[in-house]
From TrEMBL:
Alphabetical list of Gene3D superfamilies matching this protein: Metalloenzyme, LuxS/M16 peptidase-like
GO biological process, one term: proteolysis
Protein name, entry field: Zinc protease
Keyword annotations: Hydrolase, Protease
Residue numbers spanned by region Disordered: 1-42
Molecular function GO labels: metal ion binding; metalloendopeptidase activity
Cofactor entry: Zn(2+)
Species this chain originates from: Enhygromyxa salina
């Protein structure tokens, strides 16, 4: 058993974003994906705000992600004053130079920074995942560095970096050379003409050359290589000033990774550009449906009208997509992709690897070059209020920006703390000063620092009967309130401790550690200065924030008023011919790279009694994993029912997030004062509540959760807050297309919908006595922390044998044919979700291999739908509830496409998924990739609890991994094909604009019905 550390007295702090600490899947709004956000293991797919991509083309981003603010809003590059130089000023606030960090200070990352002979920066940090490493390549170039006539070039380049090299991604690199030159010449001619017939002729010729090049190209070979090497994720991203490429691999593949990355960074070949262009168009269509993106782009153009921060967008303008400058791509790469403008960030367990010598050998041939300067325009601060009004998707809103000159390190830290005072994700001055439910307004508060400017952003949706001008003035008043009503010591203490709490959370996995190190390089600062900001924030005082707020409230700002309305339709791209994608193709260079495997000691599987324990609770097992990498804990209570069985169940769960009146006199006035957060997630069949925070406060936090779940009295203020939380979560007007598709799927397959708006209103007016006693119904399944077994057992809920946990009933609607439900929403893109009828009887290994054959990066769906035909922007799969029954094959395929393509996409998805003739070469590639992942599969300590629980439910104390691998290795194609879902039986959900779809083609595939948004959200009165 584990020993118990001394338990100091509880620490007070603010309960910041619950989704950051406990892995909650609650919906969050975004304006841009994170700058270098990794696809961590517990993320299932990319959604609005999740930022996870499982492909080589990760997308675009404008602003720094909130998690980065833990070290002082780490975002883009910041100009740091040289020693003795002029200290930057913010409206009269003068920051003294920061004091040096003490020699005895401890670096929790164990980071070492060095440079190769060509100037390439190498940052190496300790990791938490035995046998694996996470690697980031960070290049200091983005959309703000693009030539005026070549918008979107940096993003195009990010996509094309996955197309291979002279020897990789092709069967004949010599043959490609004249074709590439011909393609560049055609694009140069296209840029010089506006004559429609001539444009049409050139586009036909470009398509012809693209097809000729495809005869020897191997589309997706780079991603396929990463997959075969056992990658947990591979992705990339482009922002205003930074482009990043990142992955997670077994340590045995470190040399192969270095060889591959060095080759494609040094000398990429941009083949099949015309095909990839349509994928970028689908990405832009996807972004255009998000009102936050449209609003944010408009605000940047208003704040920086004479600078590329405002005039250029990473995704590019519509005119840029119509005439992309392929002819400038190579010059752009040659100028900016240089070792003296890049860094490698490597985090992981690399003790037995000669890291420096391998990197010097592989990357040392990358030639350095002086970058020179680029004219990006001028930053002119507004002298008076600047307003723009526009229509965009989503509810009416106000977005405000205060642009300013680059700030000193001290002022950056103060400004970051000030944003948390205004809004920390759950509470702040916004909720105290604005009328109505602040969470329902989707507040967006952040600060961004770039090379030549910084700015503060505050955005909210309009409240009931509120005008744009009224909300604008209220936001100004809230910012001014920090000066007029100084920040209390309690406010400041809670915010600072919440920032520390988030920092502890980021220490738990290698990708999260890599994010902070990578962004520190992107800022242009030393790691010592990055750690210094941790010390500086501890010295922030209320007077500093008061002066800062006074300065901001006296400054001119820019503001965007949006009204609900659809964006104008994007112009269609010219026809692009599908390209051949033969799965058996493999370059000789790919075979050589796959053969590079360094022998490493085999990692022992998690050990009972050392890495984890199974507590035999009287209602079911509790999986306990020890946390040795941070000071946090997390406990999950699972319930064997969802809102499908009892719609009021979700009300009970939501009650856990609302503090009780009784708490004010006992264990804290608010949960935020206890050092942790509580969140819940309720699905159609299952649900859970999680409580997380500093381990020193585990007793107090579990006590708070117990009080909340045992309550039987509902004072009016608690009931009002609870109902507001539910309305914002389940009945928001701006719920994403992804979430609508998931809810429609739950309703059609499981007959389950969240509580209706009418039920919530009734609860708000009358209350309910049915919401008590939930504590005794929960089953503690996963605990992550350092509390000893005896103390943990005493803290957990107790119950009788009649309440033993059991697997949820996994019954589902069995479709008689292809049943298509269209949720009519005016938007540019389409969210498609296809859930096939259950398939049972196949072995677990057959299901695993068939799923890998379909869903891997080089799998059948991605190869045919994206790489060959450019029908989708993303495609992926889910296997719902398989953790409860490993023999259940309930496959759900999701994709982002366009209205005109949805019929073809659906038809092909069904044919590919249910096909009985499997490609032997593709199956062997999927087999090798799956075996590599299973053989080197490691998870973070927090993820381990969930994994052990799922294994325990399905197999008890037995670890089936070796048995599964043996079966997968020898399984024949007919046995794998037998596991395929049955053709002609599936439940299909399509969220999009029905007026732009070919309904006749859809009706040929199956029975079509139409659903309103209100029906899906559980309220007939919703629009």
């Amino acid at each position: 058993m584990f020993s118990t550390p001394a338990s100091p007295r509880p620490i007070k702090l603010s309960g910041s974003r619950c989704s950051r600490l406990v892995g909650s899947k609650q919906r969050s709004r975004r304006s841009r994906p994170p700058i270098v956000w990794p696809a961590t293991g517990d993320m299932k797919r990319y959604r609005h705000g999740d930022g996870c991509r499982r492909s080589g083309s990760n997308g675009v981003t404008r602003r720094s992600f909130m998690l980065s603010s833990i070290l002082g809003s780490v975002g883009c590059r910041l100009r740091i004053a040289e020693p003795g130089g002029v200290v930057q000023r913010l409206g009269g606030i003068v920051s003294a130079p920061p004091e040096a960090r003490g020699a005895d200070a401890v670096d929790p990352f164990g980071l070492t920074v060095s440079r190769l002979s060509n100037g390439l920066t190498v940052c190496q940090a300790d990791g938490t995942e035995p046998g694996r490493f996470t690697a980031y390549v960070v290049v200091r170039v983005g959309s703000s560095h693009e030539p005026d006539a070549a918008g979107g070039l940096a993003h195009y380049l990010e996509h094309m970096m996955f197309k291979g090299t002279e020897q990789l991604g092709t069967l004949d690199g010599v043959r490609d050379v004249p074709l590439l030159q011909r393609m560049a010449d055609l694009y140069a001619e296209l840029a010089d003409t506006s004559d429609p017939p001539e444009v049409a002729r050139l586009l036909r010729n470009i398509d012809s050359v693209n097809l000729e090049m495809a005869q020897s190209a191997i589309s997706g070979e780079v991603l396929g290589l990463y997959e075969r090497m056992g990658a947990k994720f591979v992705s990339a991203g482009t922002s205003d000033e930074v482009t990043t490429y990142f992955c997670n691999l077994p340590v045995s593949r470190f040399r192969a990774w270095a060889t591959l990355e060095a080759e494609r960074l040094r000398a990429p070949v941009f083949r099949l550009f015309f095909t990839e262009l349509e994928v970028v168009q689908e990405e832009r269509r996807h972004l255009a449906d998000d009102g936050a993106n449209v609003r944010f782009d408009a605000l940047l153009r208003l704040m920086f009208p004479s600078h590329t921060y405002g005039t250029h967008s990473p995704i590019g303008l519509e005119s840029d997509l119509a005439r992309p400058r392929f002819d400038l791509l190579d010059d752009f790469h040659q100028r900016w992709y240089r070792p003296n403008n890049a860094a490698l960030v490597i985090v992981g367990d690399l003790g037995g690897v000669e890291v420096t010598s391998i990197l010097e050998e592989e990357f040392g041939r990358w030639e350095r070059q002086e970058l020179g300067t680029v004219g990006r325009g001028t930053v002119s601060l507004p002298k008076a209020r600047e307003l723009r009004e526009l229509q965009c998707p989503g509810p009416a809103s106000v977005a405000m920006g205060w642009p300013m000159r680059p700030l000193s390190v001290v002022d950056r830290v103060r400004l970051d703390v000030l944003t948390r005072i205004l809004w920390d994700g759950r509470a702040g001055r916004l909720s105290a000063e604005l009328p109505g439910d602040t969470m329902a307004r989707r507040p967006e508060v952040w600060v961004v620092h770039m090379t030549e400017a910084s700015y503060l952003h505050v955005g909210l949706q309009l409240g009931a009967n509120e005008t744009h001008d009224e909300l604008e003035q209220r936001i100004v008043a809230v910012v001014s309130s920090v000066h007029e009503k100084p920040v209390s010591s309690g406010e400041l203490r809670r915010v600072l401790t919440a920032m520390e709490l988030e920092f502890q959370w980021m220490l738990e996995s290698d990708p999260q550690r890599a994010v902070l190190v990578a962004e520190s390089f992107a800022l242009g600062e030393s790691w010592e200065d990055a750690l210094l900001r941790l010390d500086l924030r501890r010295s922030v005082e209320a007077e500093d924030l008061c002066s800062l707020a006074e300065t901001l409230s006296s400054r001119a700002y820019c503001v965007v008023h949006t009204r609900k309305g659809g964006a104008p339709p994007l112009r269609p791209l010219p026809p692009i011919s599908p390209i051949p994608t033969e799965s058996g193709r493999q370059s000789e260079r790919a075979r050589e790279l796959l053969a590079i495997v360094d022998t490493q000691p085999r990692q022992a599987p998690p050990r009972l009694g050392t890495d984890y324990d199974v507590l035999p609770g009287d209602r079911g097992p509790v999986i306990w994993t020890r946390n040795e990498v941070s000071e946090l804990f997390c406990l999950r209570l699972v319930f064997d029912q969802g809102f499908g069985a009892d719609p009021l169940h979700v009300l009970r769960l939501a009650a856990a997030e609302v503090p009780t009146v009784e708490e004010s006199g006992s264990i804290g006035a608010q949960l935020e004062g206890l050092g942790g957060v509580i969140s819940h997630e309720s699905g159609a069949l299952t649900s859970y509540v999680e409580v997380a925070g500093l381990v020193q406060n585990v007793e107090a936090l579990l006590g708070s959760l117990r009080v909340r779940l045992q309550r039987s009295r509902w004072p009016k203020e608690e009931l009002t807050e609870l109902c507001a939380l539910l309305r914002g979560r389940y009945h928001a007007a701006d719920v994403s297309a992804t979430e609508l598709a998931r809810r429609a799927q739950d309703w059609l397959i499981y007959g389950a919908r969240p509580p209706s708006a009418e039920a919530i209103d009734l609860l708000s007016s009358t209350g309910s006595t049915k919401l008590d006693g939930l504590w005794e119904r929960g089953f503690a399944t996963q605990f992550f922390g350092s509390t000893d077994v005896e103390s943990l057992t005493r803290l957990l809920p107790a119950g009788g044998a009649a309440q033993r946990w059991s697997k949820p009933q996994l019954g589902a609607h069995e479709p008689a044919g292809i049943e298509i439900a269209i949720v009519d929403v005016p938007m540019e893109s389409v969210e498609l979700r296809v859930t096939f009828a259950d398939r049972r009887g196949a072995s677990t290994a057959a299901i695993d291999l068939h799923h890998a054959y379909l869903s891997n990066w080089s799998g059948l769906l991605n190869r045919e739908l994206r790489e060959k035909r450019s029908l989708v922007y993303h495609v992926g799969t889910d296997l719902p509830f398989r953790e409860y029954d490993p023999t259940l094959y309930r496959l759900s395929v999701w994709a982002n496409t366009s209205p005109k393509k949805v019929g073809e996409t659906l038809k092909l998805t069904i044919a590919l998924t249910c096909g009985q003739r499997l490609d032997e070469a593709a199956l062997d590639a999927s087999r090798a990739a799956l075996l590599e992942r299973l053989d080197s599969r490691q998870v973070s300590p927090r993820e381990l609890a969930a994994e052990i629980f799922a294994r325990h439910v399905a197999y008890g104390d037995r670890d089936p991994t070796s048995e599964r691998m043996a079966q997968i290795e020898t399984m024949l194609a007919p046995n794998v094909a037998a596991a395929a879902p049955e053709a002609g039986r599936a439940t299909v959900v399509i969220v999009g604009d029905r007026s732009r779809m070919d309904l006749r083609a859809l009706r040929k595939l199956g029975r079509v019905r139409f659903l309103s948004r209100g029906e899906v959200q559980g309220s007939s009165s919703s629009n």
